[in-house]
Amino acid sequence: MSERDDIEFDFFDEPETEEATERVRTPRRPPGGPPRRPVRPAGFIPMLRLAGLIAFLILAAVLLVVLVKGCANDSKRGAYASYMEKVRAIAGRSDQIGRSLNQTLTATGIKETELESRLNGLAAQEQQEANQAKSIDPPGRLRAEHAHLIEALQLRASALSRLADAFHRTATASNATKSGGLLAEQARLLVASDVNWEFYFKEPAIQELKSQNVTNVLVPDSKMIENPDLASTQAMANVWQRIHGAATGGTPGGNHGSALVSVTALPDGKKLDPNAENTITASTDLAFQVVVEDSGDFQEFNIQVTLTIAKSPSSIVKHKKIDIINAGQQRMVTFTDLGPPPFGVPTTVKVDVQPVPGEKTTTNNSAEYRVIFSLG
Predict the structure, then answer these.
(1) Can you give the CATH number for the domain in which 280 is found?
(2) Residue 112 has pLDDT above 80, yes or no
(3) Whether the predicted pLDDT of 75 surpasses 90
(4) Across the strands, what pairs with 310?
(5) Which domain holds residue 218?
């Protein structure tokens, strides 16, 4: 090995100087200095941000679901309410047809041909209501109930037409009972339509609304025959006799009569005495119940009952009507919404029951009571 080579070798193997060693070595923290801060993991803050974002998204999703569900419920309720509003209009018009029918059958002095014409007109009106119902698109879950509603309306239209035809077929008959039986068969179809409306439309519709959690939506009722007694054979035989008597110019024969039985003040429940002074508690619920009896041997129709409370400057006058009452039967009418009566001074309450055609004794048709209205 040459001398030059030895010098180069010695240069690279030379140990580090003290100054270089001190520069590389990491100084130590002197004892007793401030505490060292804990070292956070590098991913802690991003994880917090991610968790907050996830919580926000979950809350937004929940709020969105609640909002969508609320809108869906409002939409569903609106659909049911709109449908029932349309049905309510049809039910109201059909009820009016029923009232017109009752007025026609109980009218005094009506002729056979006029009665048939009225019945055919009512049948046409009812068929229009059935056609109107067919044009309504019900909510999906009420399609079966809506079909029954249409059936009830069509049954009413058919029954009215059949009733007019039955009157025409018995126009020249001589047997009142047989004629009444034929008429009653058609009238009972009207009663059946009321039953169908109640049991196959109204009640199932109410249950369906409950199952759908739809509230504050009323399902309408509808009746053609308020008093099913009118559909009896005896009642229709009496109608037939009265109409044919009017057609021939005859007057009712036999024992006919109507009588005032009693008058009761409410809410006291006090029966008025015509021979004494009666003290009555006057309140917002003040009413009078009047009981009327058919004192004859025949069924009677359209009996007018009038209540009069003497008061200055003008008396309180109310009217009620009993559509039909059988021989020996008692019917009650209630007079409400009377307004404030005269307080603390003697006055009178009078009740008059209109005499029926052919009635001979009318002394029991009215009564006058002396009363004092007290504030209690």
Answers:
(1) 2.60.40.10
(2) yes
(3) no
(4) none
(5) 65-247
